[in-house]
Amino acid sequence: MSKKQLLAAILKLPVDERFDLISEVEEHTLPPSLPTHTEWIASDESPEFIAELDRRLAEYIKNPSRARTWEQVSRSAQTRIRKIRQERSTLHSRPKRKLTSSKRPNTTK
Questions:
Q1: Quick check: is 77 in a domain?
Q2: What's the domain count of the chain?
Q3: CA distance linking residue 106 with residue 57, whole number of Å
Q4: Quick one: which of 9, 16, 59, 91 is 20 to 30 A from 102 by CA?
Q5: Helix axis angle, 15-29 relative to 47-62, nearest 10°?
Q6: Inter-residue contact 75 to 60 (CB < 8 Å)
């Protein structure tokens, strides 16, 4: 089987099976002294962080069409930052109202 045929067959697999295949190939390819990508991530991160990565991966596998490119995320963030800056500058540039002193009755005679 040629590389091209192999790749075509792999791309027909469901996404989760492709990830499993990557892990298996990695385990059989890397020298034992090097950690796999999952071991490398897990070694420095909290269990909560790993769980969040797993949750996001599962979400992507279920619905890859909802994924956004870095360009889309960056553009959205820049738009939100611009909007917040505009709101802040509007707040700071409003004319300040003069405080009027309340008129108190003169009690001194």
A1: yes
A2: 1
A3: 74
A4: 91
A5: 130
A6: no
